[in-house]
């Protein structure tokens, strides 16, 4: 941050539902990343060049009270917040406007977070945007700039502590998968499988799913964002499950495809192994220095080869293809990898070379609507200088292992 620059980061709102109901609270990932406070109505101010030392980092919190303690439980006290965050200047949020008058008389540039995710969709006004509107009206002659570039850089390289949280999330997801391998059989409902995962997640101190789970049997697996999860799993079908728990707000994101009756048919195995081959090769391609756009093109070629082998597309289709819409996209419509971390589709540096410490999913898939068959396989990995750490390396993946665990 340059001299005179001050960053201000707000927590998220508790989002309302109906009547006096509300959604479970989900902290703003930038705020959580920077100070670890998982509480609503919190504001973090970072002003490294402030003259007064006590103004260089300030945390504002909702004032707790005996009334709040009775109804909601204890919120952070000033003392607890200092201990949790290491920030000395902790104040009640009621004093924010007053303190701002002093800070803004010294600051020249105000850095504000903004949701710059390439696929964001935000029909409501977030607390962050409300704040941004307020401060720019209150102090119109200051310079305002984006905090997002710094946050994306920081958050895309995972620290050891973050990797540990993510590994824990993957381990709990593994426990969920092992549980359902014993549970799935013809006649079981997709939502019953979802419940088994949830049971395993909660008992391991995860707060639950990191995203809406996809439990899709038969043709449903070809609906890429199928989340109804309300159909019966039928004998002979493949069941695709895209599920992951979160732990300490860090996401895991796994996909597995298993035969409902415990045994793959020859064709199912063929398609499964094609996807598995692409996944294994793709993981090896994610190296420091690689550009994600080039990586995605290479994975497209790997997939093309497999689809030709499966008889789904021909060499002629490839020869005649529109380069903007390659032939393989008929059966593999989505990207192979995304950043993962505090958010399942985490922020990251999409247009710069991959670096050690970045965390990605690798998730190729083949969806054959005419065969009621959809297979996607997805692991989460950390890129290292020499190779990678597969956070899901212990989660059963090979056909033989899945069949034998299902038949136990
Ligand atoms: N589960 C979301 C994804 O795989 O990207
Ligand atoms: Mn997924
Ligand atoms: Mn994913």
Description:
With 408 residues, the chain is an alpha+beta fold. The chain has two domains: 5-155, Creatine Amidinohydrolase, Chain A, domain 1, CATH 3.40.350.10; 157-406, Creatinase/methionine aminopeptidase superfamily (Creatine Amidinohydrolase). It has helices at 29-35, 66-71, 78-85, 96-106, 127-138, 148-156, 160-183, 190-203, 266-285, 292-309, 315-319, 399-407, and strands at 5-10, 43-46, 57-61, 89-92, 109-112, 143-146, 208-209, 214-217, 238-243, 245-247, 250-251, 254-259, 359-362, 365-368, 373-376, 379-383, 388-390. Strand 16 (379-383) and strand 17 form a beta hairpin. The chain is globular and about 70 Å long. The N and C termini lie far apart (58 Å). The relative contact order is 0.11. One manganese (II) ion binds at residues 253, 338, 361, 363, 378.
Chain-wise SSE layout:
Layout: E1 5-10, H1 29-35, E2 43-46, E3 57-61, H2 66-71, H3 78-85, E4 89-92, H4 96-106, E5 109-112, H5 127-138, E6 143-146, H6 148-156, H7 160-183, H8 190-203, E7 208-209, E8 214-217, E9 238-243, E10 245-247, E11 250-251, E12 254-259, H9 266-285, H10 292-309, H11 315-319, E13 359-362, E14 365-368, E15 373-376, E16 379-383, E17 388-390, H12 399-407
Parallel strand pairs: 1-5, 3-4, 5-6
Antiparallel strand pairs: 1-2, 2-3, 7-10, 8-9, 9-12, 10-11, 13-16, 14-15, 16-17
The structure holds glycine and manganese (II) ion (2 copies).
**What is the average per-residue confidence, as pLDDT, rounded to a whole number?**
97
Q: Which hetero ligands occur in this complex? A: glycine, manganese (II) ion
Q: Given this structure, which CATH class of the largest domain is correct?
A: Alpha Beta
Strand order of the largest sheet: 4-3-2-1-5-6
Number of extended strands: 17
Q: What's the architecture of the largest domain, going by CATH? A: Alpha-Beta Complex
Low-confidence stretches: none
Task: State the helix count.
Answer: 12
- Give me the CATH fold name of the largest domain: Creatine Amidinohydrolase
Largest sheet data: 6 strands, mixed
Q: Termini distance? A: 58 Å
Categorize the overall geometry.
globular
Q: Name the CATH homologous superfamily of the largest domain.
A: Creatinase/methionine aminopeptidase superfamily
